[in-house]
Amino acid sequence: MAQTQDGPEKGAGAVRRDFLELVAWSTLGVGTLVSLWPFVDSLNPSADVLALASTELDLAPIEEGQRVTVKWRGKPVFVDHRTPQEIEAARATPLSELRDPEPDEARVQRPEWLVVIGICTHLGCVPLGNRPGEPRGEWGGWFCPCHGSHYDTSGRIRKGPAPRNLHVPPYTFVDNTLLRIG
Ligand code: FES
To answer: What is the pTM of this model?
Structure first.
């Protein structure tokens, strides 16, 4: 005599119920995957975000002594083609004179190119000095008129309420004249 579902041979009703349970679980699995997909997909950065993740700048037209501003992830980045005098001024400064001591050599990859985020580390204003004719402060770098912070030719804080140097973003020289920020 055939045994019940607990025995070695299942009845036709039990086999059918097992099959229906399997189908139900499979459907639930697929349904979960399908409903999760928009969520998982939304975690991937969109194309416009990816495009803004890095910014490239052709350095060839930027003459010595010239400064340009580029936008990276919504922030202004100052790119400064420094003169030998500006490099010398930055490197001759004793670290003991600095509020946020950092050697110039640690802030640049190539001495003639300084790349910093143009946001004052006090309360976030954009300092002056990156356009011709703007005041550069007492150390020839940048001047934040919001509350009077002065930065030197390495973008280091020298006077005023800002606590930190202008931040250096991640960047690479793709080749001799192409800079990639980000
Ligand atoms: S925001 Fe620059 S000095 Fe206050």
So the answer is: 0.74
